[in-house]
Design brief:
Largest sheet: 2 strands, antiparallel
CATH topology: Farnesyl Diphosphate Synthase
Cofactor: Mg(2+)
Distance between the termini: 33 Å
Strand content: under 5%
Helix content: over 70%
CATH superfamily: Farnesyl Diphosphate Synthase
CATH class: Mainly Alpha
Number of helices: 16
GO molecular function, one term: metal ion binding
Mean pLDDT: 88
Number of domains: 1
Protein name: Polyprenyl synthetase family protein
Structural class: mainly alpha
Family: Belongs to the FPP/GGPP synthase family.
Keywords: Magnesium, Metal-binding, Transferase
Order of helices and strands: HHHHEEHHHHHHHHHHHH
Number of strands: 2
Strand order of the largest sheet: 1-2
CATH architecture: Orthogonal Bundle
Shape: globular
Radius of gyration: 20 Å
Length: 335
């Protein structure tokens, strides 16, 4: 099976190698979610079969190119990060009441919340089984990443403490909930390819930074694109009260002494009952027309530039160029 890469690469040989290894990852993913239990089998396959960009395993395979990329451990590690990501999606969709994921009905819409949550747990178990074969250090890293994923979701759910700045709180949530797994994806690739400690540190820092940029770009896309791009209903986060950077910036703007009537009107729409589609569409449109979207986009771009700068210690060549392209592609989605 040939797997198309989500990231266009200028180096044909690198693209061919990554395409071949992504096919191995896809095969391992399918094998990993196969179950003799019919319900578990069907529910586990739901998001794997829905596809997706596979950005996390792609990043693992890409950073492995800085060392001995043909090691089997690299493919196993790439499957681990994607299974972990898929598991979080099952849980996130329940917590956010998201009706659509990757263009298909969310698992909880098909089987209910309990089955969706248990399926996510099952995928975590499958990821843990594979990572156990990669050694104690890999298990420790996976456990620490899982802890950060849970803390990010917990802090998002609870919200900032009274003394906390909501924007800074949100950036920490993104670092834990999104960037931690992207950083681990990059780390695993270099680590299992036998790269030096400096290279492993460099790509891990890159992944952490670009992970926050990635989610800020998603905040923009959620408001500015239709559901065919995201696979989700535009404004789903607004409807469910999930904080996003544009909404937080608008609240800060509307509460400032120099707030304009337009600021307050947009906030009123945002804080209205969004259960009706027309009300949600009006709130989305108000945010689209406000400069908080451009400010969020600028934060994403600035972080992407920072991530690229962090690649400085890596040797010049097609892998470094591809990592730069990886960073640019993540935020270009929000342009």
């Amino acid at each position: 099976m040939t797997t198309a890469l989500a990231l266009p690469l200028h180096d044909a040989e690198l693209a061919e190698r990554l395409t071949g290894r992504m096919s191995l990852v896809e095969e391992l993913l399918r094998d990993s979610v196969t179950s003799t239990d019919p319900i578990a089998d069907l529910a586990s396959r739901h998001l794997v079969n829905a596809g997706g960009k596979r950005l996390r395993p792609l990043l693992t395979l890409l950073t492995a190119e800085l060392g001995h990329a043909d090691r089997r451990e690299v493919v196993d590690a790439a499957a681990v990060v994607e299974l972990t990501h898929l598991a979080t999606l099952y849980h996130d969709d329940v917590m956010d009441s998201a009706p659509v994921r990757r263009g298909a009905p969310s698992a909880h819409e098909v089987w209910g919340n309990s089955v969706a949550i248990l399926t996510g747990d099952l995928l975590f178990a499958r990821a843990s089984s594979i990572v156990s074969g990669l050694g104690p250090e890999a298990v420790r890293i996976q456990a620490a990443t899982f802890e950060r994923l849970c803390l990010g979701q917990l802090h998002e759910t609870v919200g900032p403490r009274p003394e906390e700045d909501p924007v800074e709180h949100y950036l920490q949530v993104l670092s834990d909930k999104t960037a931690s797994l992207i950083a681990t994806s990059a780390r695993f690739g270099a680590m299992f390819a036998g790269c030096s400690a400096e290279v492993v540190r460099t790509v891990t820092t890159f992944g952490e930074t670009i992970g926050v940029a990635f989610q800020l770009a998603d905040d923009v896309i959620d408001l500015t694109s239709d559901g065919t791009v995201t696979g989700k209903t535009p404004g789903t986060d607004l409807r469910e009260g999930v904080p996003t950077m544009p909404a937080l910036l608008l609240r800060a703007r509307a509460g400032a002494p120099d707030a304009t009537d337009a600021d307050r009107a947009a906030l009123a729409l945002l804080e209205s009952d969004l259960s009706e589609d027309a009300a949600l569409a009006a709130a989305v449109q108000a945010l689209r027309e406000h400069d908080v979207v451009a400010l969020t986009r600028r934060r994403a771009v600035d972080l992407a530039h920072q991530a690229v700068a962090e690649l400085g210690p890596l040797p010049a060549g097609p892998v470094k160029e591809a990592l730069v392209a990886f960073a640019e592609a993540l935020v270009d989605r929000a342009s």
